[in-house]
Amino acid sequence: MLQVSQAQSNDGKKPSAVSDQQSTSTVARLPLQPAHDVTNQLLTTQQFVCSSGYTQKQCHEQLMILKKALAVYPVQNLGRWSWILVRSPDWKGILVPRGLDEDSPAFTFYPKRETFIEEALVSPVPVRERELLVKWSMSRTSLLDFAIRHELGHAFCNDPNEQHADRVAKLLEQKKAVTCETTARAERR
Ligand SMILES: [Zn+2]
């Protein structure tokens, strides 16, 4: 879950952990269709799927963009992981009932090793693109990269803490080795 930095103050209650728990049923509610192009050697441990509502062509084209953006990072170190594209018209309907910030274009669900990415990060979606630009002040390409690094921060460390995810995102941006906050792990388990 991406959050703007001003909103990152209430750490102790782990709101994102609760929110992500609430998203347990997301996959069950979204009939998934398998992606057809999982050929990149770097990404062999990664599964790519599109939610219902995608045509095969849209799914293929948008996944190519996602894979290209992911390939910059050591995603193979994640082990088995799923990346799920969700159409923008369906996005808010998933986030809002779960108390997630509708302006966030990505979130990770750790127990099932899944990261959900909104279509607007990989394809022009006029109205939504404008909303995201106003909120994040980043181009689509930059926001996709930012979102991927941030979600990888959660995924690599199995840590719902937003500040910790941003810290790992920065390490990834700087091409440094990923380290996790051991205290956060101890608290959670
Ligand atoms: Zn997050």
Structural commentary:
The chain is of the alpha/beta class. It has one domain: Collagenase (Catalytic Domain). 44% of the residues lie in helices and 13% in strands. A hairpin with a 4-residue loop joins strand 4 (106-109) and strand 5. The model is unreliable at 6-29, 35-39 and 184-189 (pLDDT under 50).
Indicate the topology:
Blueprint: H1 15-22, H2 26-29, E1 32-34, E2 46-51, H3 56-70, E3 81-86, H4 88-95, E4 106-109, E5 114-118, H5 126-136, H6 140-157, H7 162-173, H8 182-188
Parallel strand pairs: 2-3, 3-5
Antiparallel strand pairs: 1-2, 4-5
The chain binds zinc ion.
Question: Which characteristics define this entry?
Answer:
189 residues, Collagenase (Catalytic Domain), binds zinc ion, globular, disordered C terminus
